[in-house]
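WARN retry 2 of 3 for item q-0093 after timeout on previous attempt; input resubmitted unchanged.
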Amino acid sequence: DRRVGTPGTSPGRLDRLINRVPRDERRQDPQRNPVRQLATRVRHSPGSCRQPGRSTRTDTPQPAKIQIVEVALGLGPFSASLVELYWEWEQDPSVLVGYGRQTPDSLENRREGVQHQARGTDDQLRFTVYDITTTPPTPVGTTAVLIDHHVRTGEFIIQLNPSSRGKGIGTEDTRLTLDYAFHISNLRCVYLSVLTPNTGAIRAYEKAGFRKIGERRQSGYWLGQSADETLMDAIPAEFPGPSLVRQLVNPDS
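OK item q-0093 returned
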């Protein structure tokens, strides 16, 4: 995960958020919808750091609690029980190209890796992204921020279920993760690198609040050709908002 360039796996052209949750679904029994208590309707209007990318599976375990919720998406716990689902997403050819992997991973190796990731909560944020327009909510991706506590910065990583791309999901779950990183983890900068030919991912990151800060030349490969990496970062002062964390902690402010 700590390899520079892994964020190149982000979700393609993410230009629209998926449909809003119907009103009658938002009113249902909290026991049937684990995100009911946190659901909040909102309107939506960078390496080095500056100072100032839908699954149909229904048999996977669901989270006891979604931690932060947008109108159609929620960030839930990263769980070793979902390893087969994570592994399936990671074997998609577009993900392998974005990660710069030359060979697919085995499920056995991924099982070992996910156990380490699930235990390493002191120096990383890890979330499963859920589509909350379904009952129960459906896992559609993961996000992570690998934290350097000495300088209060972190590297952002994302992956999505291939069938969930092109719907605005990548932009929104990136924004939710930045909201958590800035306003709960109190990071002063979150950064990433992405292969420059991955223009859809770059657009999604920019919409979520990242800005380009430079390039690392000839440092990766894209479809058999050497490629540059685009370096990006995000800082709290430029977070596009609104902040759902602030709304949940201070609903009257």
